[in-house]
Write a structure and sequence with these properties.
By secondary structure, the chain is of the alpha/beta class. The protein is built from seven helices and seven strands. The strands form two sheets. A four-stranded antiparallel sheet has the order 1-7-6-2. It has a three-stranded parallel sheet with strand order 4-3-5, with helices on one face. The radius of gyration is 32 Å and the shape is flat. 10% of the residues are buried.
Length: 242
């Protein structure tokens, strides 16, 4: 009996077992032949078709509200609650499972960042000063200035580090690390070596970290909440304590 075509054979076994006068059939190759390179147009059309199929697959009709507490979540519409009701539920769950009462409350904000011609918005970061602070911790802020009077004002208003160009070396070597950097306009031309190092934390007017009002800048950045836009349109940040 010949070995099955779908299995393996010993070298030369098919010749020894084959009847005389019959040419043995060569064994099957168990590797795929190289596929021809598809045209760009066909690849693009296939990708569009795959996207359409995915949309059809996920657009299944959702069922009404479940009748009990055990159900498949993807078969029902996701429930939504008003702000007061949601906060009340968080407090109730905290009492039931004995979690830490001062744990943070987080929020996910989905922004509508659609633009014309399918352009994307680069992720960006900003900061906001909330009317009611929910943490006792303050951010460490460094102030760049070479004016002694401005330096004294910065120290009186809670600056963690105050100095001029002599701080550049320590920052580049990671000897000084703070949460935010602010500066006065007179010293900004001398801080160019820090542009690549600090990146988005480099002092600038758009982020309100460059100006002459040192007390106002320090108050903002010592108590502010920083947030970032990730994945083009999602903000994930904490906003309160339970």
């Amino acid at each position: 009996v010949l070995a099955p075509r779908s299995g393996w054979v010993f070298p030369g076994l098919d010749r020894r077992l084959a009847p005389s006068g019959v040419t043995p059939v060569p064994p099957l190759r168990f590797y795929a032949a190289a596929a021809k390179t598809a045209k760009k147009g066909s690849q693009k059309g296939k990708q569009e078709e795959d996207k359409k199929q995915q949309v059809r697959r996920w657009r299944r009709p959702l069922m009404s509200k479940p009748v009990d507490d055990v159900y498949l979540t993807w078969l029902y519409e996701r429930p939504s609650y008003d702000l007061e009701e949601a906060v009340g539920m968080l407090k109730k769950f905290q009492e039931l499972d004995f979690t830490y009462p001062k744990q943070f409350v987080y929020i996910n904000v989905f922004l509508d960042m659609a633009l014309q011609k399918n352009k994307k918005v680069d992720p960006f970061a900003s900061s906001v000063l909330l009317p009611h602070r929910f943490t006792e911790d303050t951010n460490r802020v460094l102030v760049f200035t070479e004016n002694e009077q401005e330096a004294e004002i910065a120290r009186e208003n809670g600056a963690a580090v105050v100095g001029g160009v002599e701080l550049i070396k320590w920052i580049l070597e990671d000897e000084i690390q703070v949460d935010f950097y602010v500066a006065v306009p007179a010293i900004i031309p001398k801080l160019i070596p820090l542009r690549n190092k600090l990146k988005r934390k480099y002092p600038n007017t758009k982020r309100k970290s460059l100006g002459n009002d040192i007390p106002k800048m320090l108050q903002h950045f010592r108590e502010c909440l920083e947030y970032m836009v990730q994945d083009e349109r999602i903000i994930k940040t904490r906003i309160a304590r339970v």
